[in-house]
Design a protein that fits this description.
Length: 151
Amino acid sequence: MTGRNSERGHSLFPDFNVLFGREFPGLPGWRPATAAHSIPVEMSTDGGVCVLRAELPGVDPEDITVRVDGDVVTVSAEFGESTEDRAHSEFRYGSFRRSVRLPAEVPPDGVDASYADGILTLRVPVPEEDTEAGRTIPVKRGHSARQGEMS
């Protein structure tokens, strides 16, 4: 078979990429009006600071909202579609939203949010874990019920 282009045979079942891909099977580009795209994120910690990076290419920073509720950060954005006629587009338009639980509650001060080259970067100070918070309780030897009955 070397040197020959082998074609994939037609199957009775659709390809998984078609079933579980970005588009609804049979209706290219269809999405429910209430659906929001997920935002790809990565999170790391560096010297007592939690760094959350969210990929939002082409979004104006004024269209990005960052909301905090306890230890959960929610990033949302809107990316409007132009009225220009295109023969083909794989760009995503509409609402984008992602909620991420951080390792600690977000403090009211010291959080920094910046946007450059399509990446939103949040720097959140994380308090050092209190190693003194846990404690050991000594266990005393007690009298068994059997010993109490004998005396």
